[in-house]
Specification:
It is a single chain. The protein has helices at residues 3-6, 38-48, 63-74, 123-127, 136-140, 143-159, 176-186, 197-203, 209-218, 257-270, 275-289, 302-317, and strands at 9-14, 18-23, 31-36, 53-60, 77-85, 92-98, 101-107, 129-135, 162-166, 192-196, 223-227, 233-236, 241-244. By secondary structure, it is α/β, with parallel strands linked by helices. The chain has a domain at 3-14 and 44-55 and 119-313: UDP-N-acetylmuramoyl-L-alanine:D-glutamate ligase (3-Layer(aba) Sandwich), CATH 3.40.1190.20.
């Protein structure tokens, strides 16, 4: 079956959502409620760009899980792949402010999402999407979640969907040797592989963008988006390499920028853009995400992304 012709969804993502408590700057003990989680942010970002989106996860049968489900309904993210788990809690994290910036603390051990298993995957949902997304964080939260991510990527490829995989390498979550082995094995499934230069330094001990892109291609990634932070992104499709400059924006918080990048990229490819057009759009969308606080609230809508692209084009024409 070809997912392009039988798809009900443009994007299906799999991973762990988190309930967020963010301490207000200068107000110890005062917390702002929010939401986070890399693949969840990606799913919402894709939906805000107009993509038909669904999320596969497990949440606790608790108030936090209920609020996450309400969020997805508001954001037009289908709950068709969401399971309630009465025996486990929804993952939670706290954001505080230290001398070096944000400090993240997690209560995710034994979370509902960490109890995902391959035999409970909604395979039919995966077979009916054009793009499937997961990440290294999903694979890091438990052995069963890692197995589930591999099973989902395999099912997506067999159905003709494109797999978009984000390394999101977090050394605090798992031993580096295991992270390297799992992420490298995942490259063989990746129609698009995304990573940052900092992650590449840990993953393959390389620091030159062209060397990193070549390393990824040698291990099976068909296309690669190497995120360069404020300097933009460098892409490769196996034949061509191109760097897109970053956008001059008033950046205040980079939380969720990479997740927005992934969601916007898939949404635009689902909308008919080629890889390079989608890459340019995603680069602008990710920049806009850094102009607000939190993971979800700043995720932009298409009119704002188009305005930034137009402004940048006009600025370049007059420079």
């Amino acid at each position: 079956m070809n997912a392009e012709t039988h798809a009900c969804f443009d994007v299906v993502a799999l991973g762990e959502p988190l309930y967020e408590f963010s301490e207000l700057p200068g107000q110890p003990g005062h917390w702002l409620q929010g939401f986070g989680g890399d693949t969840m942010n990606c799913a919402i970002a894709a939906a805000r760009q107009g993509a038909r989106t669904a999320y596969i996860t497990r949440v606790g049968d608790d108030p936090f899980g209920a609020q996450l489900c309400a969020l997805w309904e508001r954001e037009n993210v289908s709950l068709a792949g969401v399971e309630l788990d009465a025996r486990a809690h929804t993952g939670v994290y706290f954001v505080t402010h230290g001398p070096q910036g944000h400090v993240f603390s997690y209560l995710r051990a034994g979370s509902a999402a960490s109890r995902m298993r391959p035999d409970t995957l909604p395979i039919d949902l995966i077979r009916r999407t054009r793009f499937f997304h997961t990440s290294g964080i999903t694979q890091a939260i438990s052995v069963s979640a890692c197995d589930t991510a591999f099973a989902a990527m395999q099912a997506a490829r067999e159905a003709g969907a494109q797999v978009v995989y984000d390394a999101n390498l977090r050394p605090r979550l798992w031993p580096l040797a295991r992270a390297r082995a799992v992420i490298t094995a995942s490259l063989a499934y990746a129609d698009v592989f995304m990573l940052s230069v900092d992650e590449a330094a840990l993953l393959c001990t390389l620091d030159q963008p062209r060397d990193i892109l070549a390393w990824c291609a040698e291990r099976g990634a068909k296309r690669v988006a190497l995120k360069l932070g404020k300097d933009g992104v460098m892409g490769s499709d196996g034949q061509r390499q191109l760097q897109l400059a970053g956008h001059a924006v008033q950046s205040v918080d980079a939380t969720g920028a990479g997740d927005c990048f992934a969601g916007a990229l898939m949404a635009r490819m689902a909308g008919g853009d080629d890889f390079w057009q989608a890459l340019r759009y995603a680069n602008a969308a990710a920049a806009l995400t850094t102009t607000g606080y939190g993971a979800v609230a700043p995720l932009p809508h298409p009119e704002h992304v188009r305005k930034l692209l137009d402004t940048t084009a006009q600025s370049g024409a007059h420079s």
